[in-house]
Specification:
The protein is built from seven helices and nine strands; from the N terminus they run ααβααβββββββααβα. It is α+β, with helices and mostly antiparallel strands. It has a single domain (5-241), classed as Dihydrodipicolinate Reductase, domain 2 (2-Layer Sandwich). Strands 8-7-6-5-1-4-3-2-9 form a nine-stranded mixed sheet. A hairpin with a 5-residue loop joins strand 3 (112-120) and strand 4 (126-132). Helix 1 packs antiparallel against helix 6 (204-223). The two termini are 19 Å apart.
């Protein structure tokens, strides 16, 4: 969305003042496999969640104009360009954590090129997120997710085809998924604009929270300490929700 929470706030204020529709393109909210996983979680098919694992890994991107992705001052590095999509999705699944810890490594730009973070939640659930573009070329891009609950496990990797695997304790099933995430995302946004509906599938206030969580991970990496989300900090982060 932006390189800082302050910039996110200015975007939200500008959209409100101009009475215009603002949506940040967090594409995996519209990715068929992630949509299915979210639906199964919402329907309670996995029972209470125990842990979530997300990864988004690749070699350094060579496709950006003049290499701007490798300029941390412009892109925020892999933390804000790549890893943030998994931050956004785990926030959608589990909400704000009670604390987070992280380690990472920096590239020539000075920005983070690899991040491994762990989130803890008040109900005992935890999430493990790994993302970055530090791998040696020509290692291709891969994203994947595991969601484990008291009654089942869902798993998918982009390297393994289109089907999500569902394990329920007695059987293993392959769940078919079809659709173009980018087309679905575009269609949804256009409908919101034309119909004058609020963006609820990917609200910009949630995208702002993802930027905030990314910078809390940066703080954890710099300090080498667990970052607690106190009641005061949570209230500040959620202030734009009201």
């Amino acid at each position: 969305m932006a390189l800082s929470v302050g910039e996110c706030d200015r975007m939200l204020a500008a959209a409100r003042a101009a009475r215009r529709t603002l949506m940040i393109a967090h594409c995996i909210r519209f990715w068929p496999q992630y949509e299915l996983i979210k639906r199964y979680v919402d329907e309670g098919r996995l029972g209470p969640l125990r842990f979530v694992s997300l990864r988004r890994l690749t070699s350094p991107p060579g496709y950006s104009s003049d290499g701007w992705l490798h300029d941390g001052a412009q892109s925020g590095g892999a933390l804000l360009d790549l890893h943030i999509h998994d931050i956004d999705f785990v926030q959608l699944l589990c909400g704000l954590p009670s604390s987070l810890a992280a380690v990472g490594s920096r590239g020539p730009s000075g920005a983070l090129e690899h991040v491994a973070a762990s989130y803890r939640y008040a109900d005992g659930c935890y999430a493990l997120l790994e993302g970055g573009w530090a791998l040696t070329p020509p290692r291709p891009f891969e994203m994947g997710i595991v969601v484990h609950g008291a009654q089942g496990t869902l798993e998918w990797s982009s390297a393994g085809g289109q089907e999500v695997r569902f394990y329920d304790g007695s059987s293993a099933r392959s769940l078919s998924c079809a659709g173009d995430a980018y087309a679905q995302e575009d269609d949804y946004f256009v409908r919101c604009v034309l119909d004058g509906h609020a963006v609820d599938r990917c609200p910009p206030t949630a995208s702002r929270l993802s930027v905030a969580l990314a910078w809390l991970a940066e703080r954890a990496i710099k300090s080498g300490r667990v970052v607690p989300l106190s009641a005061r900090l949570r209230a500040a982060l959620l202030s734009q929700e009201r």
